[in-house]
Specification:
heterodimer; A: Rossmann fold; Rossmann fold; 3 domains; 6-stranded mixed β-sheet; 21 helices; about 35% helix; B: two-stranded antiparallel sheet
Chain lengths: ~600, ~270
């Protein structure tokens, strides 16, 4: 028996509608069998609502199974007597970095667990020192957690669990709320704990890139474990994964597509070097009958649409707390012009000034230097109608579902139009249109926004801004925390809005892969300065510079450059899997032709 | 704007005041506040000011940072001073309608102003040099006798420290929700009082929901880390008096004695 073993585990959530009535039963996990060996790195994958978090809470004894049994280190989690031992043996790290830190100073938080366990004072200090060192946070031990980045906070949370000397650590989507750098930090820390300290790691996630290095992967869907195997096996079944609302890293997808096209590529390619190696092998031959497509390159959009001038920034600078010791230049001399109808992506790591920048667009922040024009008018001129501007330049904040407040969906969406002083019928009409645009039909109108799923809530919130009929729609990280399918759905809807309504879209993100697929222009922010501003292909050509400022080009870009270095004449400006597939096939074909 | 409030914020530095036992700091702050009301002469205030300046210097907290904490209380201060100024009977210097500015009024208003400013700076020296956790630990220890009459001292202390940890987070959240609703055309500034209160609904409802969600998450995280009340719990930083703490008590006792002497002698 391994450190964690589950037999026929099932759990029901009960929801009590009214008193006396039979509660509504929701089976969150069903018939789950697990046997996890000590010292392994296990990943559990699944879309939002697949039951993976419920399973995680069982391992820590926070939930007790309705049916079946779960043993943690030979202790039954249903027995009250062992509960504290179980929680000490199987520590847990949660998704939201803010909501799991109890201490007001880093080291005090790490000491919280051992204090609860009744560890003598001297040992607590020893454990705190060791744990902070293990996650590389010793330098921050006297800091307040509020001043740390998301990745650092999660590392503190991991240290807090490590200080309890667990045998196993369960991480429930620890990276869902982090930016790419934070994600890397946390994963590195987790992997090191697994290797150096021999702690069993159970990582729950919906990011496929994170499980590449796991020893064993479980995939969950609707409460069941539907796939189980080493990453190579799992990743070779691309179609099945898609069915479970997951996706695979671009490199795996590309390998899969090339294989489908008839190339002799092995199954389950997980990393870029693997693919490049596979493609440089001599047995790679263009399949017979493959013809060079007439003109495969999709017609490039000739030029960016140059509509009427919409937003214009001139020498804009913004300083937080000017004149004090906390003075911080968030923006420095930004010049920018966004014509009506463009689809723009703004990229930058956390703290690069991108959030500050977008709040200038609708006048929520007043620049400390420079001017901002909307349709030619200075928005900070006297008597400029700022509230009117905000309905024309709609801004959807990060996690917009946190701003919902009404009792039903329709009323909440009406809030924006109502503030424009439109008659009630018009408000309702617009709200309904907006909801239709985000793919929510009449059956949702009367529902409370709080009983919807995460993705649905977010769409209601986006509709809330859309209902004001803005000419420009700015979205700050609209896909944060969503699973791959939810992410694609939202982005597709935004793209269709751009097409059908012709509104300007400004998409803020730190994921290059997301943005590359949709936008026509990318603005890269770094330390408050506009570093690049060009078409995606041109920006990604600077992938080395992007890396230097903590961003990364899409995986595809790296693959193409790596192939080119190996002497394959591919088009390095390909930015999505389709383009890359065609370009690689074409290059291989050319190589063979030359040989003849 | 919300983030400018520095009361209750800890300022990390390495000073003698930072290292003192929180109980000492708590008791000393109380003594200092009492002394402000015991002193009644300008010389007395001079002594209090001297003491305060010494503490500010010892704390190694930048004076500018401390002063920022005063701003939100300025209004309260001005109102108090105003009432003292116009409603104190005595030798009238200038009058208008029912308001009379008297010589005694001016004196009282200035004294009140000095007392309040000293009081706030004094209290903020304590919060700036003591982590909220130490502070609650200190209070927990000072109030421990109350356990005998079934006051849940540990639980209260834990609640306080959690509240302190989440105040800045909720402040930031308020700021964010406010901006998000402003982006949807909400208006938090204009209108009469009733309208203003009504306009707060889109801010307060999401804020409460968020607070509850956080509370729920936090409770779970605490349970997952084996928190089960104060029984059988050890402490990472147990409070123990050291030489410097006794010394500090001595200094404070001397200061209090001085203030009483001043009062008795009548200076």
């Amino acid at each position: 028996m391994g450190i964690i073993k589950a037999a026929k585990l099932a759990f029901d959530y009960l929801r009590y509608e009214e008193e006396g009535e039979e509660p509504e039963v929701n089976r969150a996990i069903d018939h789950v069998d697990l046997d996890i060996e000590e010292g392994k790195f296990i990943a559990i994958l699944g879309h939002n609502g697949s039951g993976k978090s419920t399973l995680a809470k069982h391992i820590n004894g926070l939930l007790v199974p309705t049916e079946g049994t779960l043993w943690v280190d030979h202790m039954n989690t249903a027995s009250d007597a062992d509960i504290w031992n179980i929680r000490q043996k199987a520590g847990m790290v949660f998704q939201n970095p803010d909501n799991q830190i109890i201490g007001t100073v880093v080291e005090e938080d790490v000491g919280f667990g051992p204090e609860n366990l009744g560890v003598p004072t001297e040992d607590i200090w020893k454990r705190v020192d060791e744990s902070l060192k293990a996650v590389g946070m010793t330098a921050y031990r006297h800091h307040s957690p509020n001043k740390l980045s998301g990745g650092q906070k999660q590392r503190v949370a991991i240290a807090g669990v490590m200080a309890m000397h667990p045998k196993c650590i369960v991480l429930d989507e620890p990276t869902a709320m982090l930016d790419p750098n934070g994600r890397k930090e946390v994963l590195k820390a987790v992997r090191e704990l697994n290797k150096k300290e021999g702690v069993t790691v159970i990582l729950i996630t919906h990011y496929m890139e994170e499980v590449v290095l796991a020893d064993d992967v479980y995939v969950m869907d609707r409460g069941h474990i539907v796939m189980h195997g080493v990453p190579k096996e799992i990743f070779s079944r691309v179609d099945q994964l898609k069915k479970y609302r997951l996706d695979v890293p671009q490199v795996t997808l590309l390998a899969y597509d090339l294989k489908e096209a008839g190339l002799a590529i092995p199954d389950g390619i997980l990393t870029i070097p693997e693919l490049v190696d596979a493609l440089s092998r001599p047995e790679i031959r263009i399949p017979k009958g493959w013809k060079l497509p007439e003109h495969t390159q999709k017609k490039e959009k000739k030029e960016l649409p140059q509509g009427k001038e919409s937003i214009k920034l001139e020498h804009v600078g913004y300083t937080y707390n000017p004149g004090s010791a906390y003075e911080m230049h968030a923006l420095k001399d930004v010049n920018l012009e966004i014509p009506q109808g463009q689809f723009v992506g703004i990229i930058g790591h956390t703290g690069s000034g991108k959030s500050t920048l977008i709040q200038h667009f609708n006048g929520l922040i007043r620049p400390t230097e420079g001017h901002i024009y909307f349709e030619g008018q200075d928005i900070w001129a006297d008597k400029f109608p700022l509230r009117g501007l905000r309905s024309q330049v709609g801004l959807v904040f990060q996690y917009p579902e946190h701003q919902l407040f009404e009792t039903d969906v329709l009323t909440d969406v009406c809030f924006g139009p109502k503030n424009q002083n439109l008659p009630p019928e018009e408000c309702e009409k617009r709200a309904k249109e907006a909801l239709e645009h985000v793919g929510l039909d009449e059956s949702y109108y009367a529902k409370s926004p709080f009983e919807l799923s995460g993705g649905q809530k977010r769409r209601v919130a986006i509709a809330g801004v859309l209902a004001m009929n803005p000419k420009v729609l700015i979205l700050d990280e609209p896909t944060a925390g969503l699973d791959p399918m939810g992410r694609d759905e939202i982005l597709d809807q935004i793209a269709s809005l751009h097409e059908t309504r012709g509104i300007t879209i400004i998409l803020v993100s730190h994921s290059m892969e997301d943005i590359a697929k949709y936008v026509e222009r990318i603005i890269v922010m770094n330390h408050g300065v506009k570093t690049f501003d060009d078409a995606p292909k041109k920006v990604f050509a600077h992938y080395k510079e992007l890396e230097a400022i903590g961003l990364a080009a899409p995986q595809i870009t790296y693959i193409m450059y790596a192939l080119k270095e190996k002497g394959l004449d591919v088009d390095t400006s390909a930015i999505n899997v389709d383009e890359a597939t065609t370009s690689i096939l074409r290059a291989l074909w050319k190589k063979e032709e030359d040989h003849k | 704007m919300m983030r400018d409030i520095t009361i209750g914020q800890y300022y990390p530095a390495d000073s003698i005041l930072h290292r003192l036992d929180p109980r000492v700091k708590f008791v000393s702050t109380l003594v200092y506040i009492v002394s402000l009301f015991v002193f009644s002469s300008w010389l007395g205030y001079g002594v209090a000011a001297l003491f305060l300046v010494a503490m500010i210097v010892l704390s190694k907290v930048p004076f500018g940072f401390m002063i920022k904490g005063l701003k939100p209380i300025m209004v309260l201060l001005l109102i108090t001073m105003f009432f003292n100024l116009v409603f104190t009977p005595g030798e009238v210097l200038w009058s208008f309608w029912i308001l009379k500015i008297t010589k005694e009024g001016i004196r009282l208003a200035i004294k009140m102003g000095i007392r309040l400013v000293f009081l706030i700076i004094g209290a903020s020296i304590m919060t700036l040099t003591t982590t909220p956790n130490q502070l609650t630990d200190g209070l927990e220890r000072l109030l421990r006798p109350l356990n005998k009459i079934h006051v849940p001292v540990h639980e209260i202390a834990m609640m306080m420290s959690i509240a302190l940890r989440f105040i800045p987070i909720l402040m930031e959240e308020t700021d964010k929700i406010m901006k998000a609703q402003m982006a949807r055309g909400a208006d938090f500034e204009t209108g009469n009082l009733i309208q203003k209160v009504k306009n707060m609904v889109p801010l307060l409802v999401p804020l409460f929901i968020s607070a509850f969600r956080r509370a729920n998450d936090l409770a779970m995280a605490m349970e997952a880390r084996c928190y089960h009340g104060g029984d059988g719990r050890t402490q990472m930083k147990p409070l123990a008096y050291e030489k410097r703490d006794y010394l500090a008590y001595l200094v404070v006792a001397g200061y209090l004695a001085l203030s009483i002497v001043f009062r008795v002698v009548g200076i």
